[in-house]
């Protein structure tokens, strides 16, 4: 592990705790360096979470959340992603594996010393100061050119094939003859053009023989630049010459291979792109950014990448797919446009990218000219196929291509060979995509052809059929078990929906597609987009009564959930569910009756009305009895078990939930998205709370951690945020595990800031406010708590309000505002009386006693004891040992006393909870 190792463009020196990319330092913490070194030392082997933690944190207990944080930092530094890992992959719940090839820079088995990225960068600069990001390619091809007689560099127009060829020949000792075939109108002229370049003046009937004779006498490399429009004739010419000489060499650049005998093909990749969100110094390590900055500086007489510009430059380079010519053309507009304006205007890239160097070839002076050159050498069938494939955004499969093409198999492969379609072979299939510049160009041609509407309709039908056939898979299986990556269809789905609801679209197809995509929207937590599409679809169906009541029912159900969870006008959500229930009852649809009743139960619980929730849970059970799906009756038990918890009947709740989970686990399949959450996780959330209430705090935290890991493993954001908000954060605080609580709160904030989950984000802020009280900062606790509670009050999400009021009362008391604190507790207790909510009533009574004790005058102790005894009686009635335990003054982990300066007096936490005998003594 102390040896310096190389993988891809990275060099890791564990001993020196450094990581470099192409010779430039990569910022990474020392703990992350240790973990990365451990992974690379065991490349190809699965290392369990426990093994990695033991290595990185020896003799120290840490939660697995810490490991995930460092793995995330490593992946970000390497430019890796969980969906398409190049370096680190994970087995959910088990561990991680380093999957890239690793070479030791000191290994004697290599035969020759391995060049470091820094040496390669230096070599590149010696080759050509204007070549960016191609040092390793040139290095490898230089050696290859010594061993093959026909080397072909293949890639799309403008990617830099000719540039690489020139840099490559700059290192060669061969005599070079450069032949630009783009200037030829016919492939029959290739022999004549090459002979002219070789100064062969006498011409016989066999020009190829004369060329071969010259090559046999001299060490010459002939470059055939831009072969794509005469590729067949170029192949015949090369084979003819190589068959007649033993010394001649050819280097060809083309958009498709020659397929000649003995050909070695190198497909040139786009320039490496930076990750979004990087700093200017980090982005400057990207060859694509380096090229833009160099060309921009030349255009305006000096330019340096600033932190203000970096996001726009990164976005620009990514929009242009790292295509060198496109980046050069964009930089050439810097004299009239800012970087931000350039990035924004690239949606109309052909207008913007229309000015190149006057000395460049005509076909390279504008991006459109480059693409025209590629397009007009295609056959009519290939042109039509390229147009139709432009409707796909991102990657697509052969099945998807079949939906828009008449004869897809051969024509798609033909376009791949011509570098107009990118192909990537996966373990189970091949996927394809068009570069964005090519897609925009082909899309214009599709519109000009008059076929845009018919092809968009075929795309929408394909997606609708796919999602409808996959509905159960989308609902029931984890993302890792999906038969295909449905998320790759999201970009094309967005386009199809946008088209369908436009004036020239097909609104009924938009309705069908929206309904079909509902499971995908929810599984991927694309709730804002779902809301937008559903709103448009409902507007159409409401304007056309009785055209499709079943889909209208589904749309109202989909509309209800996001609006219920919003902090703005949540009553619209209940109205939507009420409409869905009425339609479901009219249609006799048991499934959607259950969904609607479930939603109303959720609303009652969120409004802290468990007595009303009990009515809905009983109604759910009655309808579920007539369902053919055995899961429905199991879900009914979950609703009842959860309701009993909020009513303070913890033991009954625990018994029902244990039974429910056992029955659920016995089923061959589960239900994740039908009732929005993974049912097992949701049941265990309440079960963990029950375990805590009856005095088994450590078991409760163990259940919580398992739920967090399961939610992460199935990739379901809604379930993850639910377990964090309703169990992980509050229980960690109640048990007194402050560091763990901080981790959970941070995780909840992180997973709600970018989603439409503003309610749970407010919960995270409330828990964070309670953390500040633990830390002795009552003023900040009060400010943050009140701000977040005000939002939750307006939205009607008051599930934890009574508990948060107990925190607010303690903060007020810390500031010696005892009257206000007492009023808050009285308000909370009054709500408990009217709603049936009792789960935290013992705590409210205890805090009331503390307020009387600290601010009640000479009789405060006696009056406080009355409230303490009431708290004890309520806790015992509930069987809530955990609440009763908080009354024991010998337990030092209660933040109950306040000093004269108004600061909360927090003492050290105990090493462990009371043991069994201590619990019995409490009674």
TrEMBL record:
The keyword Transmembrane does not apply. One of its GO terms (molecular function) is ATP hydrolysis activity. Keywords: DNA-binding. It comes from the Bacteria. Residues 2-100 form the OmpR/PhoB-type domain. Pfam families: NB-ARC, Trans_reg_C. Residues 2-100 bind DNA. One of its GO terms (biological process) is regulation of DNA-templated transcription. The keyword DNA-binding applies. This is Transcriptional regulator. It comes from Phyllobacterium salinisoli.
